[in-house]
Amino acid sequence: MAFHFASLLLLALPVFTRAQSPVWGQCGGLGWTGPTTCVSGSVCTRSNDWYSQCLPGNQPPPPSTTIPPPADPPITTTSTPPPPTSLPTGAPPPPIPFCATIPGNITYSNTRLPDPFLPIGGGTRVSTKGQWECRRREISELFQRYELGVVPPKPSSVTASFSGGTLSITVANGGPSISFSVSITAPSTGTAPFPAIIAYGAPSIPVPNSVAVIRFNNDDIAVQQNTGSRGSGKFYTLYGNNHSAGALAAWAWGVSRIVDALEITPSARIDTTRLAVTGCSRNGKGAIVAGAFEPRIALTIPQESGSGGSACWRLSDYQKSQGQNVQTASQIITENVWFSKNFDTFTSQVSRLSVDHHLLPGLIVPRGLLVIENTSQEWLGALSSYQCQRVGRRIYEAYGVPNNMGVSQVGNHNHCAFPSSQQAELTAFFNKFLLGQGSTNTSIVRTDGSFNFPETQFIDWTTPTLA
Ligand SMILES: *[C@@H]1O[C@H](CO)[C@@H](O)[C@H](O)[C@H]1NC(C)=O
Ligand SMILES: *[C@@H]1O[C@H](CO)[C@@H](O)[C@H](O)[C@H]1NC(C)=O
Ligand SMILES: *[C@@H]1O[C@H](CO)[C@@H](O)[C@H](O)[C@H]1NC(C)=O
Ligand SMILES: *[C@@H]1O[C@H](CO)[C@@H](O)[C@H](O)[C@H]1NC(C)=O
Predict the structure, then answer these.
(1) What ligand has the least distance to the C-alpha of 411?
(2) Region 220-242: what's the mean pLDDT?
(3) pLDDT band at 325 (very low <50, low <70, confident <90, very high)
(4) Which domain of life, per UniProt (predicted)?
(5) Cα–Cα separations (whole angstroms), residue 166 to 27, 131, 193, 338
(6) Which of 47, 204, 281, 307 does the annotation list as catalytic?
(7) Centre of ligand 1 from the C-alpha of residue 244, in Å
(8) Omega before residue 193 within 30° of 0, cis
(9) pTM for the complete prediction?
(10) What band does 221 get if pLDDT is binned at 50, 70 and 90?
């Protein structure tokens, strides 16, 4: 035994003497010929087929190739879990009396980005902020039906306790209960209750020292390993897995439960009227969806969320048609379980989708939204992300608050490494939406890329001024 172990170590040694990637550096991906190990203190983490990178963390390094990796854990537990409560059907937001009923069976076809202001049942375009609430509810339901799956409303029981920097949350909905916890790091300055940022994983943007950091282990709620992890995670213990909610929907639900818990736990010393949410890459997709579905989030900061986050499905398909290696809807569903199974029927023909991601800001308006992107790395869909969110910002313009949404795209940095040239913009959004400096200038739409975007091919509508 000891002999075998020693020889394995000897065999493994050369692996560790090869050049290692720095924190935030690339460490794998199709076509990657550079180092596949990371400097100590960081872990090589797969983002997608084209990109793995060294993320800060204290987990042990991945096993060397000379030691066979352990078999994948089974996705379902061997003991039969208690029967989950069934997911609610229909529109999660409460019906608004003056809103028209959303048709049950929608046949839609549009190669352009759907008009944000045209109700799905046809009729008059939205012209007031009151009517926008009906359209907001409609967009929310369409995203849930056809792409994300149901984001369930608040369950019947949410309890919480706070001790030693850990907020423990227990949730039940008449059936089994689940518990999960988040860590809260109090800020070094300021007076309680503190503003806070909920970070999927850990923040990869600089957080002001007067803002608390809440770390959300989203993978605990819904696993995002590969297509085999569908239905794995605490969300599915509670609600079952009938392939309705994908991971993005499950995580958004989790963020809402964190806010519920903060509201009933004053000892956590967090001001729930001043909450932000952030995440990068796959977790950036999570952050923008959480901001879209949780109105108690004052500021949403998706970072390099790309395809499935800031990018539009239609624009990514366009990029692909231009010969670029962008991640499209039909590719992304072969990678992971971020979306509902219901999305699968649309991915080879995204023109049939009655929503696209320029409508996500329409669920967030007028709350703060800063979309941070990189310029290159094709799978992020640089053109798609930037143009999609520029179009989405027209909803903020219509609402009369264009500067509550910023779009900033800067290249020449590693994935999820925050460039200092975006610092002033980030600071401005924190100041305005979390730190009470309402008059801060947040007029930000910029890219250091240059794109040849055939706008009229994708937009056939004008932007109204909502009364
Ligand atoms: C799955 O959940 C959805 C959303 O609540 C519901 O509409 C549907 O009936 C469920 N399907 C099954 C087979 O339970
Ligand atoms: C929806 O409409 C299509 C086309 O008209 C029809 O084939 C289908 O049966 C309808 N589905 C439901 C659930 O009504
Ligand atoms: C970021 O953009 C630069 C080009 O501006 C590119 O070289 C780099 O690979 C990109 N990184 C990622 C991870 O997108
Ligand atoms: C706000 O900032 C933008 C971008 O830096 C700048 O162009 C604009 O002039 C500023 N507006 C005011 C009122 O200072």
Answers:
(1) 3
(2) 93
(3) confident
(4) Eukaryota
(5) 33, 41, 16, 27
(6) 281
(7) 7
(8) yes
(9) 0.82
(10) very high
